[in-house]
Amino acid sequence: MNAPAHPVAAPLPDDAAWDAYVAAHPDATPFHTRAWCEAITRATGHKHHLIAQRDAAGQIVGLLPLHHVRSPLFGQALVASGFAVGGGLLADSPEIAAVLADAAIDLAGSLGVPSIELRGGSLPEGWPIEEGVYAGFARDLASDEEAELLAIPRKQRAEVRKALASDLKVTVGTDEAHRADHYRVYATSVRNLGTPVFPKTLFSHVLDAFGPDADILNVRNDREVVASVLSLYWRGTVMPYWGGGLASARSLRANEMMYFALMNHARSRGCTRFDFGRSKLGTGPYSYKKNWGFEPEALTYARWLAEGETPRDTNPTSAKYRLQVDLWKKLPLWAANRIGPLIARGLG
């Protein structure tokens, strides 16, 4: 393949070329898309840079979308991609991926950014590797609702059956009512975990950017929505991405209702696979997903650091943030929702 020596570290003149390359590449994720990158920039202000490699005929043969994440608390980094669990180098060959990685280092140098974080894709040779921190959970959906129940281990299946026998109601939509309930529930959930919530506009911009390929599923008792999840749909896979529940959701088994209903809803849309997302090893969410019968698959990330620099620490389970997490759990919700987005937009 006759590719130019230097990729273009700038937005493509023709955005359709970006869209077309991602649509055609078998390893692409929603986090490589222009829709995702532009939504993150609109919601957070973090500028995105697209490094693209073209061949002699002018056709794209590799690309790397990066967000320039800046935070007074956590420092700055080029992240592929911002607020994503995947992304990274997308190329037609390892040689092209290596050229893109070198171009990313050049871009970091020109911007004065001390690190680059790749959350998936090819791992550049010589870059420090992060492993043993996260695992992903995904499996095929069963052929129908009863088969799906039988695919769940016995103990968890019993909890799902109890949820199905309850008076909980499920709705799916993207209207303002669904968005408002989702943010209220999600913000409460992460505050209870001691984590700052993302800006409300992040969810709206992603929903708007993905159109029919994203929605919200809400679970309601007789008074209010108690569990909610915003999902992405990508190449026959449903990805529950931002979800949570109120304190009452556990006793109501609303989370069991939510995820099982999402499996059925996704199947009705033609999906054949359920991606439960990533979780940190040894955490409650990690165990919860295993209880559903999902097997963990180790995730490996790569990070480049300028000489003398140390990695950003954005892990809320880090001992460094233990006191802050404990204090955050005690904040009134209104205060957490006002302060949280100012902090969380710097996590990237």
Under the CATH scheme, the architecture of the largest domain is 3-Layer(aba) Sandwich
Kindly estimate the percentage of residues that lie in beta strands according to DSSP. Answer: 25-35%
Helix content: 25-40%
Q: Report the count of strand segments.
A: 15
Shape: globular
Element-by-element helix/strand order: EHHEEEEHEEEHHEHHEEEHHEHEEHH
Major beta sheet summary: 8 strands, mixed
The CATH topology assignment of the largest domain is Aminopeptidase
Question: Cα distance, first to last residue?
Answer: 35 Å
CATH class of the largest domain: Alpha Beta
The SS-based structural class is: alpha+beta
Outline the low-pLDDT stretches: 1-5, 9-13
Radius of gyration: 21 Å
**Tally of separate helices:** 12
Assign the CATH superfamily of the largest domain.
Gcn5-related N-acetyltransferase (GNAT)
Count of structural domains: 2
Please provide a brief summary of the model.
α2 (34-44) runs antiparallel to α7 (200-210) and α5 crosses α9 (254-268). The protein has helices spanning 15-24, 34-44, 94-111, 145-151, 154-164, 176-192, 200-210, 249-252, 254-268, 284-291, 322-328, 333-344; strands spanning 8-9, 48-54, 60-71, 75-80, 90-91, 115-118, 129-130, 134-140, 169-173, 214-220, 225-234, 237-245, 273-280, 296-298, 301-305. It is globular, with a radius of gyration of 21 Å.
